[in-house]
Amino acid sequence: MNSPVPFPDDLHVHPGPALLSGIAQGPSLPAHRTQYGVVPNVDTRTLTELVTAVGLRGRGGAAFPFAIKLGAVLERAGRTRRPVVVVNASEGEPASSKDTALALTRPHLVLDGAVAAAQALRANKVHVVLPGERPFAAAGLRRALAERDDPVEIVEHTAEPRFVAGQAKAVVELIEGRTNLPVTTWQPEAESGVGGRPTLLSNAETWAHVGLLVHVGATAYRRFGTSGEPGTALLSVTTPDAVPHVHEVEYGARMRDVLPPSVVGAPVLLGGFHGSWATWETVASLRVSVPGMRSLGVALGAGVVHAPGPDACPLAVTVRITDYLASQSARRCGPCLNGLPALALSLHRVLDGSGTRSRVEELASLVVRRGACAHPDGTVRLVRSLFAALPGEILAHAAGGCLAADRSRRLAS
Amino acid sequence: MSHQLRVDWPACKGRGLCHELLPEIVDLDEWGYPIVTGPITDDLRPDAASAVRACPRLALRIVD
After folding, report:
1. Which chain A residues contact residue B19 at CB under 8 A?
2. What is the pLDDT of residues A271-303, one digit of tens each?
3. What is the DSSP letter of A34?
4. What's the pLDDT tens digit per position in A152-175?
5. Which of B18, B29, B30, B37 has the highest number of chain A CBs within 10 A, making it the mutation to test binding with A?
6. What CATH topology corresponds to A12-221?
7. A375 Cβ contact partners less than 8 Å away, ≥ 6 residues apart
8. Chain A residue set in contact with B, beta carbons under 8 Å
9. How high is the ipTM of this complex?
10. What is the CATH number of domain A232-306?
């Protein structure tokens, strides 16, 4: 099944204040070294201080504090074997384009971050996981890898073209030579990951921030963002009839500033296919912030902002996404294999006015937290957010109507 | 110290023995897969251990 938001074959990357500054000079290693110099040698204490000083969070969606992950790896590495560093650039979420943007414009910042960490940790290897459904992004990273001569071995892998292939546990499976699907693990990969080694696995954008930090230091990094939440974040913005736009914004920036006038007034899906719907009123008042958005019941996630515009019915969009997510199940865990198609069907029935919210919620509660990975949980987050944020859209369908159709008629008249 | 029953979801094929042996804290969903409804209390420890041993898919574990 094709994704309701197609994987991009083109995108527009806007220059930004930090990660995306100087991208006009191109992605080559000489241009990168001219801007930043060689990879500085940092020890684990300095690395820990840097990521702690700026409160760096993982950019793969969960916003987990990087310093805690690093600490877990260090604790285990001290006792057992040399750790492993993994750059997860698989970007299996179709509506996200930020790792693709980095692959095309800033690959060496990503790789510098991983190499600096690998040297600090005396890591055994750096593994780079390339996207399976974005050949031009994979090519960008391959070109960058071919230009480099690092003191640590870098091994590339290509993710399977499947939504769940980028889940951390699935990535460890891929690197170990098994099928690139999530499995049950009894320990976090920071403690026991690739080959049982402590594994520092992070998203490509996270590594770009680490790269920037080791190059410019915490003080320069903190010039952007707010005092409580320093730095910047990448946003992937998808709107009707346009290529995806990638913006680098400071924490604290207004979310609405990345959205074009054509989508003003309509609901927006924040955080991607595993994210949450927000009304335009919420979006209009929103500032880009992990805790700030959490307090409003939405999540920044991996920075996906999908604005289908006033002509799109959010219920119909959610039905299409849920169908797609059901098709992307690894089909290994019973509640996901059976529950996601049933959940999708129950949503179809709400869309055509024949089904009820109670059946949707019954199925949601049956799949949530009952799988090897977060795929069912993320799907449930999306579905529940529709009912919580946009009850008017649901009521209209129960009465045989549709607010999007009303919006279109108003615009046409 | 309270213990939990955890399911290895990719391994589980919904055979349902856990529900037979431990109905106090294992229900089955509409497809026959276990729903763990609570922690393993002290009086349930022996039955929980039996369920873990009896699972034909070795898909259950007792975790802290």
Report:
1. none
2. 999 999 999 999 999 999 999 999 999 999 999
3. H
4. 999 999 999 999 999 999 999 999
5. B29
6. Rossmann fold (3.40.50)
7. A163, A164, A167, A182, A274, A325, A328, A329, A330, A336, A340
8. 182-184, 186, 330, 332-336, 338-339, 366, 370-372
9. 0.95
10. 3.10.20.600
